[in-house]
Design a protein that fits this description.
This protein is 26% helix and 26% strand. The protein is an alpha/beta fold. The chain has 3 domains: 3-148, Phosphoenolpyruvate Carboxykinase, domain 1, CATH 3.40.449; 151-205 and 261-396, Phosphoenolpyruvate Carboxykinase, domain 3 (Alpha-Beta Complex); 207-252, no CATH class. The strands form 5 sheets. It has a 7-stranded mixed beta sheet, with helices on both faces. Strands 12-10-11-19-23-20 form a 6-stranded mixed beta sheet, with helices on both faces. It has a 4-stranded mixed beta sheet with strand order 1-16-17-15, with helices on both faces. The radius of gyration is 20 Å and the shape is globular. The chain starts with a strand and ends with a helix.
């Protein structure tokens, strides 16, 4: 059935995530805001409390070869999981690689996201925000896949004019909107894995911002939402707030791939930055060390409500365009990305979805045309100037 939920808090709580077990030696501890090691006793104390509770839903799904089991007490969150992943029937017949215990009723002191890397268990309590489950899964995938030479990526993917394309960017920079262009065929709006044979889906659902959604500006998303509503699968999260989102299965998107699981290596890669300083052009080709530097820093402006307690636009640097859920060393992901780009001779572009020099945000149709011009190979390389501008912004930060 269609569901509407107002969550508390209305965003993720990455500062409340802690890791446990000997495998924490693989974490990047130079980013302590997101990669914190907790006391083993704290994990098992909460685990004992949550393990004894009753869970109405036992949801099993596979992604990138990893079997997940999500046990939740909440009907609304169960619907969200079914929207975002292909849930197997008869889940008890499967032995899960990872188990996520999720409970919205247990009384705890604030949000808690506890991840035991050796026991392969995650505990989520004290928050009703839907994104904690989604990003919890992605964080686990991001930890596990590099051991198999597969690169997890916080990016969307789509095909256009016989090309496969990736689009990196933080939440709110336009990944979902731009990759859902009516002329594209959508592979994923937020998370993709890149292996030796090409790219593959991590999720089979969409989690789109609803602010400014109209049939004129976002026809693909608008029609997908209406189809999900007609099928009683729509989840509306936090209506009326800046971080309001809509969850629906990928098969509600008219021009999406929802059966095919693997695709070719990408020909084009786009880094999105919602630059509020007007420092970067609308689109520019980049190469070499400029590509690596942008990926390592992930410069953009964070939109209000993306994380709990964030109510203003601010400049941020998020390594790998997804620092909160990329727990290994940045070099691990950057080395893999550069190797795959060089091996497959990918074109890489920086797209500014933010402000021009006139301090006015670029119109959506203008940015869409910039992306298509890049795919048509009509954009010049200006890596040196872009890198100098980025370094200046870093030094001023």
């Amino acid at each position: 059935m269609n569901i509407e939920i107002t969550t508390n808090p209305t965003g993720r709580s990455p500062e409340n995530k802690y890791f446990f077990g000997s495998k924490t030696s693989l974490l990047d501890l130079t980013r302590p805001k997101y990669n914190k090691i907790g006391n083993e006793e704290d994990f098992w104390e909460l685990h004992e409390d949550m393990y004894e509770l009753e869970y109405n839903h036992n949801l099993v799904f596979y992604t990138c070869g990893i079997c997940f089991r999500v046990e939740t007490n909440d009907d609304r969150h169960a619907q969200f999981v079914r929207n975002m992943f292909t849930v197997e029937e008869n889940g008890w017949d499967h032995t899960a690689d990872w188990t996520i215990f999720h409970n919205t009723e247990i009384q705890v002191d604030g949000p808690k996201i506890l991840v035991h890397l050796n026991e392969c268990r995650m505990l989520i309590a004290g928050t009703t925000f839907l994104g904690e489950i989604k990003k919890g899964v992605f964080g686990i995938v991001s930890f596990e896949l590099p051991d198999n030479n597969v690169l997890p990526m916080h990016c969307s993917a789509f095909t256009y004019n016989d090309t496969t394309n990736l689009m990196f960017g933080l939440s709110g920079t336009g990944k979902t909107t731009l990759s859902s262009d009516p002329e594209y065929q959508l592979i994923s709006d937020d998370e993709v894995a890149w292996g030796v044979n090409g790219i593959q889906m991590i999720e089979t659902g969409c989690y789109a911002k609803s602010e400014g959604l109209t049939i004129e500006t976002h026809p693909t998303i608008f029609n997908a939402v209406e189809k999900a509503r007609s099928l009683d699968t729509l989840v509306v999260e936090n209506p009326g707030v800046s971080n309001a989102r809509l969850s629906y299965p990928l098969n509600c998107v008219e021009n999406a791939y929802y059966d095919q699981k693997e695709f070719d290596h990408p020909q084009n890669i786009f880094f999105l930055t919602m630059d509020v300083t007007g420092s970067f052009p609308p689109v520019v080709k980049i190469s070499g060390n400029t590509v690596r530097r942008f990926f390592e820093t992930g410069y953009t402006s964070q939109m209000p409500g993306t994380e709990a307690g964030s109510n203003e636009i601010k400049k941020v640097f998020s390594p790998c365009y997804g620092s909160p859920f990329m727990p290994r060393n940045v070099d691990t992901y950057a080395d893999m990305l550069m190797e795959k780009i060089n091996t497959n001779q990918c074109n890489v572009y920086l797209v500014n979805t933010g402000m021009g020099r006139n301090s006015i945000r670029h119109p959506l149709n203008f940015t869409r045309n910039c992306v298509k011009q890049a795919i048509d190979l009509t954009v010049e390389d200006d890596s040196e100037q872009v890198l100098q501008t980025l370094e200046k912004l870093i030094n001023e930060y």
